[in-house]
Write a structure and sequence with these properties.
The complex is a heterodimer. Chain A is mainly α. Chain A has 16 helices and four strands. Classes of the chains: A mainly alpha, B mainly alpha. The interface between A and B is large, with 45 and 45 residues.
Chain lengths: 361, 307
């Protein structure tokens, strides 16, 4: 039998060790699942997690997929530190894409030096607007932000469908549900020629560093952490809980919106109904795997970006459905949450026989 | 007019049933103090399992049983993580939904878009042909009657049985319940598994009756709406029924408006149920006192017996 016993402190070793152990267990279980689907497990795991990196431009593809995950994940880390459960980042991402994209479509001939920065600002505003709704409803009406932010994600994707089949539809698009392609002035600058690596990929680690500074080296970050960990202490200290909830929501919404506009102005190039393979939800896993720490988010973002590439590779090379990506991500989060037990508790082995012998006189 | 009213009521019943089934299960789990945000994922896995098993065996009964087991199996993953390994319930529930989305699309990948077997309607000779009352009250499939029976049984269990009293005690104060000697963790396991089984049932209703087929992500947020319903009902069974039918009504309305050709873009009308959920949550939640009085006091808190 095993017994769980509180450590009484949090183990630094396991706070780093837990995600690594979780990853190892996830790879093991993924191999078992591949085997159950009739694939040789070692080759399948190799195809899923290693081969995509060795391909031509594999690292560039990784950076492009990781950028939105890191940018959103940093915002979510701040939010979860504050104990604000924004899980509607997917919707805020969509609104960012809509706001920035609408500007790009309205002024295709504007000079790039003006248009592109304006699009980024609009994208952030769109994400902030969508995050402001759950913030308002939570602070003013006590409504649970988990449910409201999630419901708004459905509304956002329906709004996008409406726009690309209606007002923003490409008149020369043969009836496809998509907007016109953005003009070159409205396209994210490519920083490494012929790879598709765009400005967002370079900004992602910068944003992570700024997020880390904000959270760990500023008064505001301190207040956010206190509200998250000890709301009563925060009240005694005179911190305004509502103001901090607003701050956390607006930062995470703004960053999700920024990721959204980078994505449509970069890899996608237009507004369509399929602008995201679920980045907003995957970023939740990124935030947890990165120990709700902006620096950790960089590594977690790269790993989960790899799971997207792996899903595509498994589909093309092995004929597996790319739902494998979702399963890998879900299992990884399960194992991670399970392994996190080791941070606060130690698992002790209890031998029933020995316990009995000890009890004897 | 009579015909219109009949078809309206029949459609609303169909739209409300999955919400009521899933919310009834979540009610029991939350009454025991467990907040499982994985309802959407459990419904999806239930829907696909029920559809595939029915398709292979040709038996809707086996399909329904398989869906119940699948939902409970998903809830078991959640229970082991949150009750035994003390993981955060919010994050684990979210993981369950993400996993359920991927897992269900993997299981159903060869069944997308295939017209499926439909759950037979229970036609009671004579009764179903009574004008108006006949089609509204009789001639539904078994899951619709089951949804009412299970909600009634749940209400009776919670407030009229000793076991129900213990379950509520565990949800309100796990430390006190533990001190008296009740097995808190075991009771929570049972409640969570029941919640999963009900979500599986709600899912299979979607894939065998509501729209008899399998499509990826076909539950379309109903699991989340069911979670909101439990808050709306302030954890009381009768109001759960009212809420489920209110939301079923809104869902039907959004289909109806599209059907009669009112010139409103269909994508915007489809957003009505989600917006409605937000509005209702706001109206209910603004009364902080009522939420505090009715919400199980230990909801979402992990329990670790120290003695």
């Amino acid at each position: 039998m095993f017994k769980i016993e509180p450590r009484g402190y949090s183990s630094r070793f396991w706070s780093i060790g837990s995600p690594i152990l979780a990853l190892a267990l996830t790879i093991l279980l993924t191999g078992v699942i591949f085997a159950a689907m009739g694939q040789p497990p070692l080759i399948a795991v190799y195809t899923f997690l290693v081969a995509p990196l060795l391909e031509h431009n594999g690292l560039a593809a990784l950076a492009i997929k990781a950028a939105p995950l890191i940018i959103i994940g940093v915002g979510l880390s701040l939010c979860y530190r504050t104990n604000v459960w924004n899980i509607g980042a997917e919707g805020q991402f969509t609104l960012g894409a809509i706001f920035g994209g609408a500007l790009a479509l309205a002024f295709p001939d504007a000079p790039a030096g003006l248009l592109f920065p304006a699009m980024l600002v609009m994208g952030m505003l769109g994400g902030m607007l969508w995050a402001a709704i759950p913030a308002l409803l939570r602070t003013r009406f006590n409504a649970n932000e988990i449910l409201t932010s999630l419901m708004l994600h459905y509304v956002a994707s329906l709004l996008l469908v409406y726009l690309v089949t209606g007002p923003l539809k490409d008149p020369h698009g043969f009836g496809f549900p998509q907007s016109a392609l953005f003009s070159s002035a409205a396209t994210t600058p490519i920083i490494v020629p012929r790879t598709g690596v765009h400005l967002g990929c370079a900004l992602a680690p910068v944003i992570a560093a700024l997020g880390w500074l904000l959270l760990n080296k500023s008064v505001l970050g301190f207040q956010l952490r206190v509200v998250g960990q000890a709301p009563r202490a925060a009240r005694f200290a005179g911190f305004s809980e509502n103001r901090l909830i607003w701050t956390a929501m607006l930062i995470s919404g703004g960053l999700a919106g920024l990721a959204g506009i980078f994505e449509v102005a970069g890899p996608v190039g237009q507004l369509t109904t399929t602008i995201s393979p679920g980045y907003g939800f995957t970023a939740v896993i990124v935030a947890f795997l990165g120990r709700i720490n902006p620096i950790g988010v960089i590594f977690a973002g790269l790993l989960l970006a790899l799971s997207y590439l792996g899903g595509d590779a498994a589909q093309i090379d092995l004929g597996l459905p790319n739902a494998v990506t979702g399963i890998f991500q879900g299992i990884l989060l399960f194992f991670l949450l399970g392994c996190d037990l080791l941070i606060l508790y130690r698992v002790k082995r209890v031998r029933p026989a020995a316990a009995l012998a000890g009890a004897a006189p | 007019m009579m015909f219109f009213l009949t078809s309206l009521l029949v459609s609303v019943i169909a739209a409300s049933t999955p919400l009521m089934l899933a919310a009834t299960g979540e009610l029991i789990a939350e009454k025991a103090g467990v907040l499982n945000l994985g309802v959407e994922g459990m419904m999806l896995v239930g829907a696909v399992t029920g559809f595939v098993v029915t398709h292979i065996t040709g038996s809707t009964t086996l399909g329904i049983l398989a869906a119940i087991l699948a939902g409970a199996g998903m809830a078991l993953i959640f229970s082991v993580l949150t009750l035994t390994i003390l993981a955060n319930q919010i994050a684990t529930g979210l993981a369950l939904t993400l996993f359920g989305k991927g897992f269900s699309s993997l299981l159903g990948r060869n069944y997308v878009g295939i017209a499926g077997p439909t759950l037979p309607k229970l036609d009671i000779p004579g009764l179903s042909t009574i004008p108006f009352l006949g089609p509204v009250l009789f001639g539904h499939d078994v899951l619709i009657y089951l949804s009412f029976a299970l909600l009634a049984a749940t209400a009776w269990f919670l407030y009229r049985t000793h076991a129900g009293l213990i379950l509520r005690a565990v949800g309100d104060s796990h430390n006190a319940a533990h001190a008296i000697g009740y097995p808190v963790i075991r009771i929570r396991y049972a409640a969570t598994l029941f919640g999963g089984a009900m979500a599986g049932l709600a899912g299979v209703y979607m894939s065998l009756s509501y729209s008899p087929m399998w499509a990826e992500d076909m539950v379309a947020g109903r699991g989340w709406i069911a979670l909101a319903l439990v808050v709306f009902a302030a954890w009381r069974p009768f109001w759960l029924f009212v809420g489920a039918y209110l939301f079923g009504g809104i869902m039907y309305l959004s289909l109806y408006v599209q059907g009669i050709g009112i010139p409103v873009p269909s994508a915007l009308v489809s957003a009505l149920p989600y917006l409605g959920t937000i509005v209702v949550l706001v109206i209910i939640s603004r009364d902080r006192r009522r939420i505090r009085l009715n919400q199980p006091a230990s909801l979402g808190k992990p329990f670790h017996a120290t003695a």
